[in-house]
Structures are given as C-alpha cells and as structure tokens.
Amino acid sequence: MAICPVGHDSADEEYCDVCGALLAGTPAAPAAPVASAPAVPPDAHQLDDCPDCGAPRGGRFCESCGYDFVFGGGNRGTPPSTPPSTQPSTPDTPASGWVAVIAADRDHYEAVIAQGGPDAARVAFPPYCPERRVPLAGLEVRIGRRSKSRALTPEIDLAGPPEDPGVSHLHAVLLAQPDGTWQLVDLGSANGTLLNGKTVEHNALIPLGDGDRVHVGAWTSITVRKG
Fold first, then answer.
1. Sequence-ordered alpha helix ranges (H) in the chain
2. pLDDT tens for residues 199-225?
3. Taking Cα atoms as reference points, which of 120, 131, 149, 132 lies closest to residue 12?
4. How far is the C-alpha of 144 from the C-alpha of 112, rounded, in Å?
5. Could you give the strand order of the β-sheet that contains 170-176, starting from the edge strand earlier in sequence?
6. What are the distances in angstroms from CA 187 to CA 52, 117, 204?
7. Measured between alpha carbons, how far is 153 from 115 in angstroms, rounded to an integer?
C-alpha cells in the first residue's frame, strides 16, 4: 500500500487512487523521439502541469485526461488548424477491418520476471486468462487500466480480471491513419512497451502491420490483425 503526498492510501503505486497525484519515487519516463517520429519544436507547450486538469506531465499525453502537450487540446496528434491547401487529411469514418487479439504470454512474463525488480516476487502469471478480441474502431484506441478516480476507461482495458499490474492507467494508444492503417504511441508508461520484442521509445509514432505483437505489463500480449 502506497501513501500519496496528500496522505491518501493508494493501492496503485504509480498514481494515487483517490486524488490521482504522482506518488513519490515514481520515475519520470524519458521522452526521446526516434528517427521515425516527427520533430517536436523546442518551445511547443513546454508545460510542467496539464493545463486542462492540472496533473503532472509525464510524457507527450496527459495520463489523466489525454491532453496533447505538443499540439494542445485533447485530440491526440492533431495539429492546430492550417489553410485548406496544407491541412492533413484525417479519416472521415473510423478505420475498420482491424482487431486487437489480447492474451497472456508466458514467455514475456518469464522475461519480465528474470529482469528482477522490487515487485517481481509478488507478480504471478494468471492461471486463467481467456483470449479477447477488441475491434479497432474510431480515431484512437487507448491501452491501459480503468480508474474511477480519473473517470478513465480505456478501450483495451487490462484491469482484468486478471489484472496486469505492470500496465499504466494510460499506457499506450493506437492511432488510426488516413490510409486505414494504425500507429502505436507509448504515452510515457512506467514499465515501457515492446513491439515485436523491441523497446518502443516514449511518445514516438510507430507504424503497425498485420500480425505485429505489442507487449505491455507483466504478461499481456496484443496482436493486431487486419481482416
């Protein structure tokens, strides 16, 4: 049981379940874009706290309300309005034909436990975790764990049962593209995200292909399928 700076008891060791405050000792995730990510202007919304809800900044997107610190507002990845001739196109209708297949991956779990960590001994592989399929629809699909205190219910909810304790409340997001494909963004998660076994940089746009496997948390595998 963790105690937040205000004094609330919190079952979540990353953010307070009562007030949502960042708990002491929680490492801030670095934000280092890779070559494939669009460059972020050095003076673009360099804010310490979210201007919408006041939550501490931990990455490009606010963990509490989804505010975009780069372009501003809650529409992730959508830049301010530009003249019609230069306005990037966006899907008129939700991208369809894709599905996320969610399962418990024993190999990923054993690799995570082998790395050690203060909570490794307390995390057990779930004895039963049926495969789930979530259609990818709309302009974004959030990956995380629901939180009543933050009124947060991600489209891919890993709060269980069984609950994957290694997943942040707002861990990552899948963004629909104009050509019908999807891209992955890790939102500054505490324990990181893997794509096909390789670590994903925080706040970088990563294209996804049919059959790509995304690993989050202690055991969760999310395979994206087309058709």
1. 106-114
2. 999 999 999 999 999 999 999 999 999
3. 149
4. 18
5. 156-157, 140-144, 170-176, 182-186, 206-208
6. 17, 22, 9
7. 30
- Look at the block and give the residue holding tokens 């999807």: 182
Buried b (16+ CB within 10 A) or exposed e, 155-165: bbbbbeebebb
pLDDT digits (tens, 9 = 90+) for 32-43: 454 444 444 444
The answer to whether the CB of 66 falls within 8 A of the CB of 55 is: no
Place of tokens 């995380």: 144
Burial of 137 (0-12, 13-18, 19+ CB in 10 A): middle
Whether the CB-CB separation of 163 and 77 falls below 8 Å is answered with no
- Which amino acid, 71? F
Q: Which residues pair with 98 in a beta bridge?
A: 226
Helix, strand or coil, per DSSP, at residue 111 = helix
The identity of residue 189, as a single letter, is S
With 0-12 CB in 10 A as exposed, 13-18 as middle and 19+ as buried, what is 212? middle
Structure tokens at 17: 């379940």
Identify residue 9 by its one-letter amino acid code.
D
Give residues with Cβ within 8 angstroms of 146, minimum separation 6: 152, 153, 154, 157, 159, 169
pLDDT tens for 55-67 read: 887 777 787 777 7
Distance of CA 10 to the CA centre of its chain: 21
